[in-house]
UniProtKB/TrEMBL annotation:
<dbReference type="InterPro" id="IPR036188">
    <property type="entry name" value="FAD/NAD-bd_sf"/>
</dbReference>
<protein>
    <submittedName>
        <fullName>Phytoene dehydrogenase-related protein</fullName>
    </submittedName>
</protein>
<dbReference type="GO" id="GO:0005829">
    <property type="term" value="C:cytosol"/>
</dbReference>
Amino acid sequence: MEVVERDEVLGGAVSTVERWPGVRVDRGSSAHVIVRHSGVVEELDLAAAGLRYLDCDPWGFAPAPVPGDPGPDGRPLVFSVDLDATCASIAAACGDADAAAYRRFVGVWGPRSRAVVDSFGRRPTPLGLARAFWPLGAPSGDAPRTPGGDLAVDFLGSGDALLDRWFTSERLKAALAWFGAQSGPPMSEPGTAAMVAWVALLHDTPPGHPVGGSGGLTQALRARLEADGGTVTLGDGAARLLVEDGRVTGVETVSGRRLHAPVVVAACHVLATRDLAGADAPPALADAAPPVGNGFGLVLRALTDALPTYPGVDPAVSSQGLQLLCTDRAQLAAAHGDWLGGRLPREPVPLAMSFSASDDTLAPPGQHVVTVWGQWYPYELADGGDWDALAQAEAQRLVAAVDRHAPGFADSVQELYVQTPLLLERELSLLRGNVMHVEMGLASMFSLRPTPALADYRVPGLAGLYLTGASTHPGGGVSGNSGRTAARTVLADRRPLARARAAAGRAVRAARTR
């Protein structure tokens, strides 16, 4: 087995580089959430291959409202693995009623979110989905069977509607909505309830950050592959698929090497795979037009001389996980509305992460790496604006948005690396800057992803070609689910062939001995 990669850095959006002397900076993802629940790390024994996760605990922090904002000043919200500690924080910031509601919410949505985890690890067939979700309706203890209609309303409803049914505090709802929105769609869209409810699982296993950076996961995967006899080639990616009689027979690389193989698994964007197939693309692939959208977000990688400090809060508490810098869902709605109109957000909404607080391999003593994510920045601006010209000014606006909650942050910044939607496309081959490849709305999930014709990981009409990666079920985010399911699909398809070959071999040997 050989993995070919066009980039000189392995891992795409799950990679880490030395951005400044002695400073390691992630190029894409930083907090790993889904993979810590998928079982992939344990199944491949990646710990033995060098992967070590640092738990993000507390995994979420939402600051108190800035003085002068509508509503009373208060205490921050701190979300920990410890459910009791989390509920105590909610009680202090939002009241006892919402704290009790949150405890019930985790109890109800914990099993439901585990069913989502199960569905993510299967091919998105009707039978697979039924196996994952059917047990949710079963009677439990003294509770009767949950009607399917009630489950449908919850799962198909919006995140906002779910939050409004459960909680009263806008601060709590804003923090949970901002967490849920990290998948892409606003929490006003149908089908986003489960994105919010994923928080229930974080009281079992929190997000994690690999020691040495996000690329630690990729490096462990490489080590495991090579230990099993595989190879990795960087700087010489696939240029086209080799096809004979409607079957893929390998790939030709940029350098002209021809690699012959009965199976090719394409982990790149589905539209990049279409280009690799060229005139040999069958209709299912040639006609694929999944919704890519108009960008996703903008990322700042900041080298600072201090961690973000929130008034009255120990940085050891605020810096461990996701700093959800949003106190009102109206901010999210406004930013998304601007994105829909092809405009820059009038009020940027930041999410900050600073894992150098717990991982001293990322930066020299006295320095820190802070990642600031601003969501809903359009790739193509309605006024024709040039991202190369706008990058620094937008970066400063996002820095100022963090500084509003953590005074002094702007002064701590020594260096900035700005990943605009355009740069995300250039640097990581993320088409139109969409870090999820294909939009994550309800119409592009499960058996509809990337299109109904391609949702089975196979490419109808082009035997031997398989799809994986963020373009396929279950979508973007660091999970490993699509790769594992694609591998299982390949093995399932190859076993009958292997059995047939073995039987033919036995028949030949038997004939020779007669």
